[in-house]
Amino acid sequence: MFAQLIQDPPATAINYIQNPAAPAAIDEFGQLEKLASTFHHVDGLFYFTYAVCIFFFVVITGVLLFSCIKYRRKTFDQPPASNTTHNTPLEVVWTVIPLIIVMVMFAWGFKGSLDMTTVPFEASRNMYKASAKQWDWTFSYPNDPAVSYGELWLQVNKPAGFLLESKDVLHAFYMPAMRVKRDVIPGRYQTLWFEPTEIGDYHLFCAEYCGEGHSTMYTKVHVVSEADYQKRPWDVWDDSTPAAAAKSGRSLYDRICFTCHSLNGTPMTGPSWKGLFVKGPDGKITGGQREVFVGGQKQTITVDDAYITESILKPDAKKAAGFQNNAMPTQALDERRIKGIIELMKSLAETN
Amino acid sequence: MTTNVPTIEQHPPAPAARKNFWNVSSGFMSWAGTLDHKRIGIMYLIGVSSAFLCGGLFALLVRLHLWEPHGMLFSNETYNQIFTLHGAFMVFIFVIPAIPGSLGNMVLPLMLGAKDVALPRLNLLSFYLWCAGTALAILAIVLGGFDTGWTFYAPYSLYTNKAVVSIGLGIFMLGFSSIFTGLNFIVTTHKLRAPGMTWFRMPLFVWALYATAILQVLATPVLGITVLLVAFERIYNIGIFDPRLGGDPVLFEHFFWFYSHPAVYIMVLPAFGIISELVSVHSRKPLFGYKLIAFSSLAIAIISFLVWGHHMFTSGQSTYALFAFSFLTFFVAIPTAIKEFSWVATVYKGSIALNSPMLYTLAFLIIFAIGGLTGVILGALNVDIHLHDTYFVVAHFHYVMMGSIALAFFAGLHHWWPKMFGVMYDETLAKIAAVTIFIGFNATFIPQFIMGSRGMPRRYATYVPEYAPFHQASTIGAMVLGSGVALMVYYLVASLFQGRKAMENQWGGVTLEWHTPTPPPLENFEEPPIVTTEVYDYSTLDLETMRTPAR
Asked: Is B471 within 8 Å of chain A by CB?
């Protein structure tokens, strides 16, 4: 409806969360996402306080509406029906009873938070590392050399501990279905644990504002069976042919690079990847010309694999003209993945 | 030769128009250099209302943008600036100064039976500091905007290439404006009460402003220090909050919330004061539990200094800190609940006039019940871990900031409008606007409670599509809310040009501001008042003053 009011399609149309997890199931009370971890006390206390709130809200609103109807001023000089200014027993009651109720909530909530903040032994033997930077996540797996970018696999019914670190600003690790959230703070490690109990795909959001790509800092978390987990799905990378490598590169792009780089020529925080490589009249793909700043000096270079690799691992070495003031974080990708990204860039080449 | 000189008998001179604070002098300097608390109050009113309308416009842009999951109007960068502007304008330029600066300035000396505030020059300085702070905020927009959120969390606020220093200095100035207003009100309340005006004969609006003033004077300097540290860190690279320089970003959160939690009560206590006045006047009944309400304001002022950590439950505080902050947070719920119950008990068996100020008051009572109760949900440690930084929190604090404080401001504005201007607005339109705003407000924020409890994080320029229906419902609600506010602006402004005369005592109030002509003379009272009756004693109400047009 409102979209018709806008003339130009917004630049963000290409910059939103790609392929998110399916919408979460809603629990039987219809308010929260269905719980997928063992933290039942969160839902228990939530619904308890919710019920208490509804009770008090109904009482307050009921008395107000009743009074407005019954005691409405009908004549100009109508005196009030009562001039009572206080009632000590009543005031004691409405001070003490809410006090008791909130103390119950406090104790319940505190006990629950102890459970959530104390990493149990089994989880401490199964520690993942989640490394946050603007604007994506990198995950390391327990006793496994491979890492995954912007996507995470967990084993069902096995407590998972997380060591959280930030490379730049504040972030927060938030999985609504698991009821866990923890700020990720640069300069210190944070821990978090939970035990996923349902197989499925879940959202992992960044919940602490971290700049332009905050809302696209999204990760799909797959909770899989033990058998599927043993297949190490995070280490699947098909580069058997250039086309397959480009496809693998695209899946990585959709999880990390898309927050700053477009594939269609639109400049974003960083330059578009279109035009990095060009196709000659004979169909041969070669590197295009590009103006870069090296140590503040402007140069023209020919794009090649070495330049792309350097720009991923040392983004400040040669900065594309027009983007020299925008910082790109180092992307610690391995050789195969860098190759996949380069194949993706080459697949964008068109005949001039 | 005789001339036809008219005799006195034929043409008696018209009685000189009564001088009030509007017509006692004129010209630009009579306003720009005025020391009269009423004129300063009017200037504040114009200023904060403009800030509210700007902030509201930003809010509508935010809501429109979120109509579609990938964002409909702006790039992410622009969206981040717009929600930051919305927050910063609403919090620092509108909500904090709104009620003390405009209605407080206008009414507090009248209620105390004083000629003016104790330090009139400081009062004017306070207004000009507000102007300077606002000017710096606008300058920051011109210099490229700022995209840190109103919380300015480090280290992002240290790294972003936007105009953070300019807005930081603006907030520093606005802070001093707030401190000076508070200082003024403390001295005025202590020194300028009329003879017979004992502490427990003071109207509750004065009690609330007094408790607010204590918070303003004690808490605001911490904000000033914090924004200065951010500015120094940005300019001179001193490592205070930046971990790359050996600083600690969590320290910033502590500093920020050490001010900003008491600031919540700086914002809401004056609103409580207005509601206390209005439920009494429009129910024509003494306030239920006067002393308990007065003391609960002070209790809130004290406890509010000790709960800042509940904004940081997910930041990795120690277990002991979590324990203390959660316990005290629940504890602060009690004096707040006492107030709500006392207001409801005042309305019960009253003589309730359902005029527009009372409709806004009733809207406040219902909305604040939700705002306060959802705060209790957020106080629970384990539940807050799930709900922190989601739209549930956004909805909760809008129920307090917009639904309670702004509506109390509207209620007070409608209540004292005839007193300030001597004219009445169109009551029918006012009632329509009050109902529209109430419906629009709830339609905007109830969907946000639901999507928040389902995990929608705040400050998102784009979102996963499953939340789209809630965002769209919220956007429609915001449009209804916006049209209600637009209607309110229309009839209030129209009343100044074509309004009929207000009555001397439009609503039948018995506090001192209704014992002086409408609008009040420059010196507030023709005779210095002497207080001989208890506060809210409606047996002293002269009903004829409600039917006598203002002179």
From this structure: no
* Crossing angle of helices B319-347 and A40-70, rounded to 10°: 20
Residue B410 half-sphere exposure, CB side, CA atoms within 13 Å? 31
Q: Where are the alpha helices (DSSP H) in B89-199?
A: 96-97, 105-112, 120-142, 156-159, 164-191
Q: Which ipTM did the prediction report?
A: 0.88
- Side-chain-side CA neighbours of B191 within 13 Å: the count stands at 11
Residue A177 structure tokens: 């279905």
Residues of A within 8 A of B291 (CB-CB) are 86
d(CA B76, CA A213): 7
Compute the distance between CA of residue A127 and CA of residue A124 in angstroms, rounded to an integer: 6
Please state the length of chain A: 352
Q: What is the DSSP letter of B348?
A: T
Judge: B382–A39 Cβ closer than 8 Å, yes or no: yes
Taking the CB of residue A284, how many other CB atoms lie within 10 A of it?
A: 9
Cα A218 from Cα A21, distance rounded (Å): 10
pTM as predicted? 0.88
- For residue A161, the 8-state DSSP code is E
Measured CA to CA, the distance from residue B445 to residue B25 in angstroms comes to 46
d(CA B438, CA B483) in angstroms, rounded, equals: 12
User: What is the crossing angle of helices B37-65 and B76-88, to 10°?
Assistant: 150
What's the Rg (C-alpha) of chain B?
Answer: 24
Token pair of A273 as six digits: 């990847």
- Measured CA to CA, the distance from residue B405 to residue B290 in angstroms comes to 21
Residue A16: band (very low, low, confident or very high) from pLDDT cuts 50, 70, 90: low
- Distance separating alpha carbons of residues B376 and B329, to the nearest angstrom: 8
Least confident of B1-5, B200-204, B233-237, B445-449: B1-5
Q: Name, in order, each residue with C-beta under 8 angstroms of A281's C-beta and a sequence gap of 6 or more.
A: A351
Do A24 and B383 make contact, defined as CB atoms within 8 angstroms? Answer: no
> In Å, how far from its chain's centre is CA B234?
31
> Contact, B492 vs B423, CB < 8 A?
no
Which stretch of DSSP H or E encloses residue B537? Answer: none
Is residue B416 within 8 Å of B41, Cβ to Cβ? no
Quick: pLDDT tens for A73-125. Answer: 988 888 888 888 888 899 899 999 999 999 999 999 999 999 998 999 999 99
Q: How many CA atoms lie within 13 A of A162 on its CB side?
A: 29
Q: Does B498 touch chain A (CB under 8 A)?
A: no
d(CA A217, CA A219): 7
Yes or no: say if B88 and B168 are a contact pair by the CB < 8 Å rule.
Answer: no
Residues of B in contact with A45 (CB under 8 A): 380, 382-383
Residue B503 DSSP class: B
- Burial track B497-519 (b if 16+ CB lie within 10 A, e otherwise): eebeebbbbbbbbbbbbbbbbbb
Is residue B167 a contact partner of residue B230, using CB atoms and an 8 Å limit?
Answer: no
Measured between beta carbons, the chain B residues lying within 8 angstroms of A168 are 155, 159
Contact B499, B550 (CB under 8 A): no
Is the peptide bond preceding residue B519 cis, with omega within 30 degrees of 0? yes
Do residues B96 and B178 make contact, with C-beta atoms less than 8 angstroms apart? Answer: yes
Q: Distance between CA atoms of B98 and B96, rounded to whole angstroms? A: 6
Q: Do A80 and B466 touch (CB under 8 A)?
A: no
